[in-house]
Amino acid sequence: MAPPLSPPALRRLLLLVLSLLITSVAAENVEEFTEELLLRPLPDRKALAHFHFRSSAPPSAAPSRHHHHFPKAIAQLVHQFHIKELELSFTQGRWNYEQWGGYDPMSTNYAKPPGVELWATFDLPLGEIDATWKNLTHTLSGLFCASINFLESSTAFSSPRWGFKLNEGNLRYGALPREAVCTENLTPWLKLLPCRDKAGIASLLYRPSVYKGYYHSQKLKLASSKSFGIILDQTLTVVLQPDSVRGKQLHSADGQLQPSWSMKDLFNRKLSGKCLVSKSSRVFFEIEKNIVDKVDKSGTEASWTNEIFVLSSAPDRVLKEINNMDGHSSSICEYDVSNYNEDAPLDVGVTWKLPLIWSCTPAPYHANRFLMGSGNERGSISLSFISTNMHKQLFDVSNDCSIKAVVFQVVPWYVKVYYHTLEIFIDGNNKAISEVVDKINVTPSEDKLFPGTLEMLLRFPCSMQSAALSLDFDKGFLHIDEYPPDANQGFDIPSALVTFPEFNSSRSYPETDSLFVSPLLRTFKEDGVVKSYTEVLLVPLTTPDFSMPYNVITFTCTVLALYFGSLLNALRRRTGEEERELKKAAGKRGLIPLLIAKLRRRKVDPVPPGSSPASVLSSKLLLKVVFVVVVAVAFHHFSNS
Amino acid sequence: MQCYRDMPEFIAQQMTNLGAEVYYHEFLPQSKHFHPLKFFTSTASSMAVKPNGTYANFGINTIGIIRAPRGDGKEAIVLVTPYNSQRVQSNELLSLALGFSVFSLLSRATWLSKDIVWLSADSQFGEYAAVSAWLNQYHNPMFLSHPVILDTKMYGANKIIYGPDGTTEKADHMSFKRAGTMAAALIFKVGETRKYGDRDSVTMYAEASNGQMPNLDLLNVVHYLAVHRQGFRVNIETFSSLLSSSWLKVIAEVFQNLGSVLRKINPDWKLDVTVPDYVEGTANLANSMYNQALGVPTGSHGAFRDYQVDAVSLEYSPAFHLRNENAKSSFLLRGGRLTEGVVRSVNNLLEKFHQSFFLYFLAAPSKFISVGVYMIPFALLLAPLPVVASALADDSKAKGKSVDDCKTRGDADDLQIRGGSWKWLKSARVLLVIQIWAVLVSLLPYYISQIPSAMAIQYAVIWAVLSIIILIALYAMFGSPYCAGVEWKLLKATMITSITIGLGLMSIINFATAQLGALILIPMCLFSLPLKVQLEMKLLPRTVLLASNILLTVLGFPPAAFLIMKGLSKGSWTLDIGEFWSWMEFLWEWSSATYLYLFLVHLPCWLLCIHVLLHPCHPPESKVKQE
Prior knowledge:
The complex is a heterodimer. Chain A is built from 15 helices and 26 strands. By secondary structure, chain A is α+β, with helices and mostly antiparallel strands.
């Protein structure tokens, strides 16, 4: 049936099989390191840079085996905690799903919620997982100089079954929205790379420009198995505002033109060669589908140079996305860094010839989450979906079609969500829950023990324009030592994750090089279910006045001192003795008081004996005091004037 | 009407050009409602008024949001510039320009950590209505709606705004966007009047509903930056009539002389206050207390305070003519810097302002009287009341006993039951009847205001007549207090107890009202003595007591107090009952607790006081004699 193969073709096939065999054999024994960088212009005058480093180690029997360039810390971690998969991300800023897209591999895999997010699956019996997770958080905390150890407490992590990722109960998920991300987290991350940031693509990571960006997400993904060993993917996704040629930031008010930029503008560096141990070192420049569309409309073919834009140097290869849906597809220009050196550094960039306005493909629904209500007592969490009408282009919209959406949400225990108050509004009509919710899994929170977890599979009608979910909650009270250091700001509810399982954003590119498939493009190909994270929420809780204990202590101390002082005084005093002393003193006094006393005693007998000398004494004292005061005032007055 | 419609569109275009997220918020004017109890209930239930029918007239707020580049979007700072979209004045244009320049600066700022929301509020129905409608939608959105009907009926005019092909853009611009928990809000506008002076001045308004104040630190930040950095003159509202009053000057001089004498004794005692300082401080303080006591917000910042957001209004009064371009640009620069400074201060806060600076009176933009100080006079006023009440009750008991002793033993048991230790029940019943009357009187306006198309004076007369009728009816049903034979001492004791409770409760809700009320009520209650008892006294104390009784009783009657207050502040002494009605209407529309205070604490107390004054004193004893 098959056409007879011509001899050259046969030879090629043989070669291919051979080479595949060789690579597979090599992959089993040799540690590999690849470094890649993807650049992409964004519609709102910004640029996206995505660094992807992959280190892989072959499976080994002994955990204490020597590694060539695979980080030993990671290998030990994997062996110690029996990790199947692990993903740790540090993110600063928010991914703008409306402007930067929500339906491409970049946004579904590398758009992460602000702060730290960690999830891991373990290859362990279910009973041992929680203890291992706790140890793991401490280890990672030490490795990455971050307070990941706060995820140790059982109030901080949860074990979703299917809302986050389908698993058999061996997955743990935790997020720290408040964790600040900075260079102290980047440095240990870079240490895991064989060349650190001294050579290769990582040398572009000029800290001031990386941290000046609008979005910064550094991620570490681990996968291990008996068959392929350990694969460590380190990615860094940054969205930067390129410095324009004039040296100042191009602002929208200055005109609508897209800025022309190159790597030098973004990172203040040029790329002068690869990391020597890397197997491959490439730079990709991605041209979005919508740009390709516009370029095609202008009449020229969308290659690296056309009527609308030109890339700074000719790429080694141009890859077109394999897309059987419609004619247009994004394309990628590939540069091999090994062809460049110190004398001829690589500086990939784009120069726009004509102003171009395009937009990224959005996710089927924009998911927003917000708090309702005010005050310190109760409130509601609301999740709203607004249709982008994207699916209407993709699908044939019939009346009874529906779109699935999975909501995964973890709520800390002090936000006591009443799950029975779930209300769903579709296009302004209150719908019965059974109409919309296909499957729901709720783990109610338990005070000071577990957070609440909500996993929900929703089914929206295709014609829906907007939907809103609302859940009421009460705000709990914390014990005084459970408050974080900056409690007055409020408390965070971590981002919710909305997944659209029917939408896949994966992109496949033709494999030009049979010997080597780029790990970056491979990740684009696999696991592309469209996801989007919602905002982090800030719930103002009642916070005690932390200076109050001080006030109370000082106040009580004063009262106690006064009380005990007077009590002691009363107890210590011997009134009978004192009276006798007074009498003696009165007896020894001069003649006049004695006379007066005698006179009085004769006149009124029942007068208590102690009172009259005392009254005389006090009036005398008063006179003396008045005299001294008058003298003092007069002296002061005259001395001043 | 169409030509004014492009104002929101123009603003939205400018915001979009800056790279901000933009949307329109459409709202309907709120109709007048009688809801004096609103401040007790949650805002959500009472505010959810469903629009029905067609509305040709609605306001459009234009909102722009700048997302902080590296922020996490948990918190937001709100800037508000009110303008009237129907009739844009040049001063409103200037305040919009100020808002735009600040917004455009902030859109480039890399230091932002909180999102910035610029609300250009359409103040055609009043700025408070616009801001509170937006805030209500922000915090308590209504998901239940009939979008199709609303779109066709209410938003029929949208095409004018968005143009014929702007369908997708319209959907984008109509969806309500949020920016996290609000950290603080700053409302700024340029006043209409030009104030002649060497410097531009800023007037700060801070009083929100029911005497709530924003955090003092916010005012301090504004004041410091305005005075010491940008060279504005900062004012707060003041009673201008007090500034020129001669008796205040006399008091001030006395204080100044006393202070200077004390200073000579010890130069470290800085007790001397100069006359102008004292007079100005008093006028400011009086206004601050009055505004808090009234319980009505002094501007749109009051809407923010209802959602526990600190907000302050700044009204710029330029010292230049609005056509002077150079002065305008310099003003924009300084006003913009002031706003930027305040935004920076709030932006850089990790937590909130310190929690303890909410209770204060302002005596000057930078001087305040803290709760620790102003609580003392009120506590001193209130503290003797229970003592007086118990003394009176005890007195009456003793007297009752002495009466018993005169009687024969046989009657004594009978008297013990009717008069003895349970005698206070009778006076309590009187109090109860009067309280029921007060509740009915306070609820009457709800029904009276349903009467269509009547003058305010007619409403007021109906109200007065109805309340008198109700009082008579209640007396007919439960018996008048004099027939029951209540002793005046017990009546007075009950009255004093009831105002102690009333003032104590009010001091929690609105302190300033309680304090001002205590100043009138407490002397009125303590001085009240039946006229017949007064007749038995000597001439001098009698005349003094009588004069003070009459004076305090007149002062204590709310309409009379209102008239006197109006006369003192405006100098017009014309009697108009209708004005009293409109004043009350003003109070309940703003859901001020002062209305409740006036009718549930003040008025019953005043009536009881009248009862005590007109007490016949003898009937119970004569009854006893008859028996």
